[in-house]
């Protein structure tokens, strides 16, 4: 395959961002921190360690970071058997696969969480590879996750498109030199996605699928 469609997963293909917000909010609360949900929402998409540091700042006790992340993981894990795919997410991946794209997932999820997300999408037959945060030294907004996805696909940046729902996705894709497509289904405003590097923005996977002939994934 000579071109790659790289997808973020949470908030892009699976409707999980607000589940993450609630789980992080409760994990912070249990650790004695009052973090507004709107602030948590804006940070979703960062790797766990970076998210905690971003929201609590340098004056926190870093020795508690792992406990907070573990709390989030346990709370979020309660949803694994009912994670909802976004409209036509699986259909979009299968269509791109039929059209000759190498479909690669670039996500911070791993292990049981990644398995649950893939079950929700239900398009394993269309997914060429998965690049997780465990495979790189730095997560989004660093370019490494997208660059690793391109390595797995064997495709140069100029032959790839990255689809994501957060400013961290758009920054990572832009820094990796790929064309970026934003989706609004993660709850981040269009203007923020465009300012962070999105060439074009769609409502959700179903909208992108319906508009495919005129999109960067044509």
Automatic annotation (TrEMBL):
Keywords: Hydrolase. Pfam families: Hydrolase (PF00702). It comes from the Bacteria. InterPro entries: HAD-like_hydrolase_sf, HAD-like_sf, HAD-SF_hydro_IA, HAD_sf, PGP-like_dom2. GO terms for molecular function: hydrolase activity. NCBIfam families: HAD-SF-IA-v1 (TIGR01549), HAD-SF-IA-v3 (TIGR01509). This is HAD family hydrolase. It comes from Streptomyces levis. The lineage of its organism: Bacteria, Bacillati, Actinomycetota, Actinomycetes, Kitasatosporales.
């Amino acid at each position: 395959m000579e071109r790659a469609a790289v997808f973020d997963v949470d908030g892009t293909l699976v409707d999980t961002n607000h589940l993450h917000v609630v789980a992080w909010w409760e994990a912070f609360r249990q650790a004695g921190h009052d973090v507004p949900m709107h602030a948590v929402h804006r940070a979703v998409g960062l790797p766990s360690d970076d998210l905690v540091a971003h929201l609590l700042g340098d004056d926190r006790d870093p020795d508690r970071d792992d406990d907070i992340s573990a709390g989030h993981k346990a709370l979020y894990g309660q949803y694994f058997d009912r994670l909802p795919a976004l409209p036509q997410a699986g259909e979009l991946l299968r269509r791109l696969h039929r059209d000759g794209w190498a479909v690669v997932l670039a996500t911070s999820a791993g292990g049981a969480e990644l398995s649950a997300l893939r079950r929700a999408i239900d398009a394993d037959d269309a997914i060429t590879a998965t690049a997780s945060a465990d495979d790189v030294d730095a997560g989004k907004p660093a370019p490494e996750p997208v660059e690793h996805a391109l390595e797995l696909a064997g495709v140069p940046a100029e032959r790839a498109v990255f689809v994501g729902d957060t400013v961290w996705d758009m920054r990572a894709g832009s820094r990796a030199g790929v064309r970026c497509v934003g989706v609004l289904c993660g709850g981040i405003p269009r203007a923020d996605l465009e300012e962070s590097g999105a060439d074009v923005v769609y409502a959700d996977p179903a909208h992108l699928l319906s508009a495919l002939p005129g999109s960067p994934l044509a």
